[in-house]
Write a structure and sequence with these properties.
By secondary structure, the protein is mainly alpha-helical. It contains seven helices and two strands, in the order H-H-H-E-E-H-H-H-H.
């Protein structure tokens, strides 16, 4: 899985919003996270359209989370900014079909999506912001091999 800059910036923006109790402008978020303001503006628009943030006009305006941070998962942010967690040439994994020696490949794509869901659908913005990741996540990160690049 490749995490696009758009997704990374969006998650960082959501974490910044979760850390405050008042709306922040795009410029304030960009400055706090050292992100390009113009690119972040487009990201915030996508997050608003997806219902993950709300915008408020006026002197005290800006963006805020549309619901509590403990109800927003990383998977929701990814889907809002980059589409499905796993796709195969634009199709859903269960829609693929292969013949011969590749016949089991669809099952591999479905399993890969399920593994992503196991992590991304179960970790919330609040958990990351608080530095209290669920045990299902820390089980993966406690393995020293998880931090190493793949063997050649």
């Amino acid at each position: 899985m490749q995490i696009a800059a758009k997704v990374e910036y969006g998650v960082r923006a959501m974490l910044t919003l979760a850390a405050v109790e008042h709306p922040l402008t795009t410029e304030e978020i960009a400055q706090a996270q050292e992100l390009p303001s113009r690119f972040l503006g487009a990201i915030m628009t996508d997050l608003r359209r997806a219902g993950l943030v709300a915008s408020q006009r006026g002197v005290a305006g800006g963006y805020r989370l549309s619901r509590p941070a403990d109800e927003i998962t990383i998977a929701e942010v990814i889907r809002a900014l980059d589409g499905p967690l796993a796709g195969v040439r634009g199709d859903r994994p269960e829609q693929t079909h292969y013949e011969g020696p590749a016949a089991s490949l669809s099952a591999v794509w479905v399993a890969a999506r399920a593994a992503l869901r196991q992590v991304l659908d179960h970790v919330t913005i609040d958990q990351i912001a608080a530095g209290q990741l669920p045990e299902a996540i820390t089980r993966f990160t406690d393995d020293p091999a998880a931090w190493l690049p793949p063997k050649p």
